[in-house]
Design goal:
heterodimer; A: about 170 residues; mainly alpha; Rna Polymerase Sigma Factor, Chain: A; Arc Repressor Mutant, subunit A; 2 domains; about 70% helix; globular; disordered C terminus; B: about 280 residues; mainly beta; four-stranded antiparallel β-sheet; 2 helices
């Protein structure tokens, strides 16, 4: 009887670089964007992402069969970013002036308001919003990436939206 | 909720636009990571967390280390070995920060630049000499983009050299001696980065002229540390803005100058001012 063809995951676990690249490669750009959102510095984001890829390679055996790769890998990226923030030698001050250039039709003031409101969110809430609203991860994948239950992830998103809305309303007055 | 989703996504999108063009970055990161996967993890760079209100990057393996001032390159560079002179003036008592002062036996140092001071910190956490240091006038590159400022320090076999302000190059030795050495071009729109050879004989200087509206002039020269034998070895112009690659004379190796290619402008708009890093 013919052996079933090994999956990409199985090939990657067996040390096949091409399989690993096929598995993780498409996730590198969203990972880099997530890291940039957390760290606010492109070079640090690249460092974090690169280190996360290396760690993913080493931890591949811990990925349970059938578990989605995307939240698993993004969780590694998030942890790496947290580690970098803990040990970095300088502090990044996140301000709304990164959005000052007028790029669209949307009124500048409105964009600054939401940027400020986002900047004021706690990191975990911000990450939840980024994963769900910007990277379009479903809630269960957001939960896996953040290492919380689906209901907790849903609650975190709800709480973040609730925190954003009063801010926006307040600044609209 | 749809409106919230749209607004939040748009805000994140604007933030992500400051990331710049990713081009082949994901592929490069994958290749680098796969290359690095078999390299043993060297461990984290030690942070001297006990020093209140000071955050630093230090590479201390029998060396002086370079320090980033404001904005620096991604990785700490290799640095030449040093063998500090005996320091009879330094006693093994406690310094003002509660740290033991370094003894003559201290063989390696890291550097901290914070709150207008350059401090030598021994690899054992002891406190070495310190000197005042002023930042350069140049902080911005173009169009609101911060300039990438390479470390204003360079280590030879037994001294650390540093740029004090825009133009003055000074030295500090482990025994606390300091002095003026030479000057480099500098001013409101000109900044210089430099490296002194391990034998204290030559200095390489990269001068960035940021005065043109659309470009940055680069000039790399070497000369004797005391002046003389001046030679311009590279002159070029790069576009001002994201992606323009400048040079940083990061060190010397076997008589050759080692250069790093670094971005002249930071991709990140929200940059802390050096005075805000402590």
């Amino acid at each position: 009887m013919a052996q079933p063809e090994p999956s990409l995951y199985e090939q990657a676990v067996a040390g096949d670089e091409a399989a690993f690249e096929a598995l993780v490669g498409p996730l590198v750009e969203p990972a880099l964007r997530l890291a940039y959102s957390m760290l606010g510095d492109r070079w640090e984001a690249e460092d974090a992402t690169q280190e996360a890829i290396t760690r993913a390679w080493r931890k591949l055996g811990q990925l349970r069969s059938g578990m989605p790769v995307r939240p698993w890998f993004l969780a590694i990226v998030i942890n790496q970013c947290r580690n970098m923030r803990r040990t970095r030698w300088f502090k990044t001050v996140r301000t709304a002036d990164v959005f000052e250039r007028d790029r669209g039709d949307e009124p500048v003031v409105e964009r600054l308001d939401i940027a400020r409101a986002l900047a004021r969110l706690p990191g975990k809430d911000r990450q939840a919003l980024f994963l769900h609203f910007y990277l379009d991860l479903p809630v269960d994948e957001v939960a896996l990436a953040l290492g919380v239950s689906a209901s907790a992830a849903r609650g975190r998103n709800y709480r973040a939206c609730h925190r954003l809305r009063p801010n926006l309303l307040e600044e609209d007055k | 909720m749809d409106e919230m989703r749209r607004d939040v996504s748009a805000a994140f999108g604007r933030e992500q636009s400051t990331l710049g063009n990713l081009g082949g970055t994901p592929e490069r990161l994958m290749q680098n990571a796969l290359t690095a996967r078999s390299v043993p993890n060297p461990g984290r760079v030690p942070l001297f967390a006990g020093i209140a209100a000071v955050l630093l990057v230090a590479l201390v393996v029998g060396t002086f280390a370079f320090v980033r001032f404001g904005i620096g390159p991604r990785h700490s560079p290799p640095v030449p070995a040093t063998s500090p002179r005996p320091s009879p003036s330094v006693s093994p008592s406690a310094g003002p920060a509660g740290l033991a002062l370094c003894t003559a036996a201290e063989s390696s140092y890291g550097l901290i630049i914070s709150e207008g001071k350059l401090e030598m910190i021994g690899s054992t956490g002891c406190q070495g000499p310190k000197s005042s240091i002023a930042p350069s006038s140049v902080q911005m590159c173009a169009d609101g983009l911060p300039a990438v400022l390479a470390p204003p320090v360079s280590a030879s076999n037994d001294k650390v050299y540093f740029r004090d302000g825009d133009t003055k190059i000074r030295f500090m030795a482990p025994d606390g001696r300091t002095g003026d050495v030479t000057t480099v071009p500098g001013g409101p729109a000109t900044v210089s980065f430099f490296s002194v050879s391990p034998d204290d004989l030559r200095i390489a200087v990269l001068v960035e002229d940021l005065s043109p509206a659309q470009s940055i002039g680069l000039r790399l020269y070497v000369e004797d540390l005391g002046g003389g034998h001046h030679s311009d070895i590279y002159v070029s112009t790069i576009p001002k803005g994201l992606g323009g690659l400048s040079l940083w004379p990061m060190g010397w190796h076997q008589g050759n100058l080692v250069l790093a290619a670094v971005y002249a402008c930071s991709a990140t708009r929200s940059r802390p001012h050096p005075s805000g890093t402590s």
